[in-house]
Amino acid sequence: MDLPQLAIAALGGTVSMQARNAGEGVVPTVSGETLLASVPELTALARVDVETLGLLPSASLDFEFLLSVLSWANFQIKQGAVGVVITQGTDTLEETAAFFDYLWAHDEPLVVTGAMRSAAQAGADGPANLLDACRVALAENSRLRGVQVVMNGQIHAACRVRKTDSLALQAFSSPAFGPCGMLVENITRYLRPPTPRTVLPLPQQTTQKVAMLEASLSADTLLLENILELGYDGLVLGGFGAGHVSQSWADVIEKIARKIPVIVATRTGSGSTAHSSYGFIGGEMDLIRKGVSMAGFLCPRKARILLWLLIGCQRQDELASFLLED
Ligand code: GLU
């Protein structure tokens, strides 16, 4: 039987980490080929092309590198892959998955996975996550869904997933929405049908800078006051509660929003920003009047990715349509 073609890229992260010498901390050293060797079951499911595109801790991935990974993934689909799997560190996986999702123009799935336990650790979850990710990438029902994150037996939509635990095996969740699917006896099961997606063109420029600040009690306005002078092209704020800031922040934000796009998301970790509930200065109604966009369910980090990509393809005027909630 002709097996489907699957492409896997390793970028680094805990899934690729082990200690060079006993007693030392783990660092990314394990190649994609070695990762692949840890899942011999895969040879019965697919013809696999594997590449090590990086051996980086995920905190050091950047947008330029992600664009090169995307171009590799696009090429794999052109070459006939039915799906693509990317392994990377989990620390920034919620951001990279959203980045890829906004730009993934194929019906075929792109699946991102990693591990919470390093390669040589007892009970390492890397091989299980990789095999699950491959199963999801090979599944017919994964088509038309964009980018999925597969961790610990669950499937999460790229635009919803967050890392919500620093070290636990169950580190990922999609607050307010839940996983969009799971692996049941190795079968890919989705809990919801695919939703229509809007895909952005590749950014023509990559030098734009989008700042992200979190509101906090009694915070000064020094950084905010200097945002424009520092040359930022966009600003994302993790606001209190349903998307609120202090009165002193609101005054400065009004001036900033006249010049560059400003998004306020919630810093709570779950739920949506409000739109028409609170009328105090710094509340969402006041901020909207001042020209701010509310992020809805989009968390601050993903809102920053979205704004960076929109500015990169000169489509920041369409921001509101991307923040509309389903
Ligand atoms: N906990 C992270 C991981 O799971 C650390 C390193 C990284 O994100 O690259 O991979």
UniProtKB/TrEMBL annotation:
The active site is at 14 (o-isoaspartyl threonine intermediate). InterPro entries: AsnASE_II, Asp/glu_Ase-like_sf, Asparaginase/glutaminase-like, Asparaginase_C, L-asparaginase_C, L-asparaginase_N, L-asparaginase_N_sf. PROSITE patterns: ASN_GLN_ASE_3 (PS51732). Keywords: Hydrolase. Residues 209-316 form the Asparaginase/glutaminase C-terminal domain. Residues 6-192 form the L-asparaginase N-terminal domain. It comes from the Bacteria. Substrate binds at residues 58, 90-91. The keyword Hydrolase applies. GO terms for molecular function: asparaginase activity. SUPFAM superfamilies: Glutaminase/Asparaginase (SSF53774). Coiled coil: none annotated. Belongs to the asparaginase 1 family. This is Asparaginase.
